[in-house]
Amino acid sequence: MMKPMRVDDILNNNVWDVDYEPHIRVDSSKCRECDEKPCLLLCPAQCYTLAGEEVLFSYEGCVECGTCRLVCPNDAVTWNYPVSGRGIHFRFS
Ligand code: SF4
Ligand code: SF4
């Protein structure tokens, strides 16, 4: 029987060819008015973090699932795929 894997371990099998331009942009002024901040809990790659009261975003580890765009109540996320060939390359184990 296969041993269950943690999400972090599964994600660490992947490789990224990170674009120099962020494929996701976040309007931080809208984040300041956001009470629940669901992106902090629901981004599987933990691209959203909290520093004091401020939401910080880093696109480099993004797995391109689109969750943040769907759950954001304030339409703060401008989301595109990375340019062709860039971004995550999945290596499922
Ligand atoms: S859910 Fe949207 S508005 Fe709220 S903190 Fe996250 S990105 Fe900002
Ligand atoms: S697309 Fe998915 S992995 Fe990328 S930042 Fe949004 S929730 Fe996180």
Give an overview in words.
The chain is of the alpha+beta class and 93 residues long. The chain has a single domain (7-89), classed as 2-Layer Sandwich (Alpha-Beta Plaits). The protein contains four helices and six strands, in the order αββααββαββ. It has helices at 7-11, 28-32, 39-42, 67-71, and strands at 15-17, 24-26, 48-51, 54-57, 77-79, 87-89. The strands form three sheets. A two-stranded antiparallel ribbon has the order 1-6. The chain is globular. The two termini are 15 Å apart. The model has no long low-confidence stretch (mean pLDDT 93). Residues 24, 43-45, 47, 62-68 line the site of one iron/sulfur cluster.
Features of this protein?
93 residues, alpha+beta, Alpha-Beta Plaits, two-stranded antiparallel ribbon, two-stranded antiparallel sheet, 4 helices, globular, binds iron/sulfur cluster
Rg value: 14 Å
Number of strands: 6
Question: What is the total number of structural domains?
Answer: 1
Count of individual helical segments = 4
The global form is globular
Compute the average pLDDT. 93
CATH class: Alpha Beta
Helix content: 10-25%
- Order of strands, widest sheet: 1-6
Distance between the termini: 15 Å
